[in-house]
Amino acid sequence: MLAPAAIFMTVFFAWPAVQALLIAFQTTQGTFTLANFQSMFHDTDFLRSLGNTLILLALIIPIETSIALGMAVLAQSRLRGRSVFLYIWSIPLAVSDLAAGLVWLSVFTSHGYLNSILQDLHLIQHPIGFLDYNNLSSVVAAVVIAEVWRSISLVMVIIMSGIQAIPSELGEAAEILGASAWHRFWRVTLPLLKPTLQVALILRTIAAFQVFAVVLALAGSALPVLAVKSESWVAEYRNFQLGATYAVMILVLSSLSTVVYLGLLRTPREVFQR
What we know:
Layout: H1 3-24, H2 35-41, H3 46-75, H4 82-89, H5 97-108, H6 113-120, H7 136-165, H8 168-176, H9 181-192, H10 194-209, H11 213-218, H12 226-235, H13 240-264, H14 269-273
């Protein structure tokens, strides 16, 4: 029964990854070389794209995880109308990366919805260039907002599954002992969510290193990131070796982040035994 999934993963993920790894260490003639990595490190946009990727990562992951955690807790609470909120929050799950980028492009452009609303309210006289190349901070903010909106539902669903797996008796016992709602969340729910948060953080960090379509739609070349540079070297310059080298760099960074999360959010074995 696992054969279809294994075949799919092999054909569309494992085999392309192996091919990219081989190309990164080959010349155009197929001989082994490390010159591709030297070329990447000497690329004028390498440090800039690496820095932009890390900045987006440092902003997206904490914001997204914090909001998704609050959304999951509210969705599991006894508040009236929570099912309606859950339905609305789940809408971004059906939106692709590029579609999300285009949606937020229509919001942040000079003649987009945001500027139109601000002008109609007489809060501004002239359109604000939220995506102006000279206003890099607002471009980064727009990308962060779009990426968080696009992927926060997935994190919320993962965290909700972890909350549902926590026995309700633990919270009820803490409530009987006089623990407030905040203390029950901080002392009972959050520690038991460590394995779930670990999975959510690993998945989202790997995806954040690969952020591509949203950046391309909103910022274009004004905000180079590793994934965009990998695509540009292949699509624009037909340099498959350098494009694969950038992809390998993303793979290395993603693997390192996974190791860090596995170490920082390690759960004692006795938690599982209980």
